[in-house]
Amino acid sequence: MWAVSGQAAQNQWFQKWNVHRRLRPEVMGGRVHNVLTGRANYPIHSSLLDSQAVKETFSRNGTFLLPMAFPEGSPTHPSYGAGHASVAGACVTILKAVFDEDAVIENPVQPSADGTSLVPYTGGDTLTVGGELNKLAGNIGCGRNFGCVHWRSDNAASYRLGEEFAIQYLRDLANTALEPFNGYSLTTFDGNKITI
Known about the structure:
The chain has 7 helices and 4 strands, in the order H-H-H-H-H-E-E-H-H-E-E. It has helices spanning 2-20, 25-36, 46-49, 52-61, 83-98, 129-146, 152-174, and strands at residues 109-111, 118-120, 185-187, 193-195.
């Protein structure tokens, strides 16, 4: 897990700095604010400047700047790809390869309504190891979106970039087996069953 997470992060940093250099939502919010307050004239499409989201942001906060979950603001490095989502995609792929994804989680629990205890899960769906791992990866990336530090598209692509790196990593690892080995089997985020 350590090896794949570190290398997936390095691969993502290459994409951030050497390929994409996409601005973060906070920076775009700042540009919208500066255009609408007459401080700058960036080429921003009128559909964004006149959008309900921008009006609602100003109505709630008295500014066009995005509300931030973090007082220090967003990270200063580029937005795309999302490092957390890339690492989550890589690590979850490794876990799906070594554990039985179809295993049902027996007697699952969930937080009580007041958050002070655990109560039996009543969602109705059968929870599996693979399904929960996919949710874990999704929650890691989406949490960064909720904090206004990433775009949804940053995460959507980065899970798969991490997954692809982990598949290549497992492919290389499988070639080093000294005993008979049938390979790693897993289900990709797209739902395809593969054997490496």
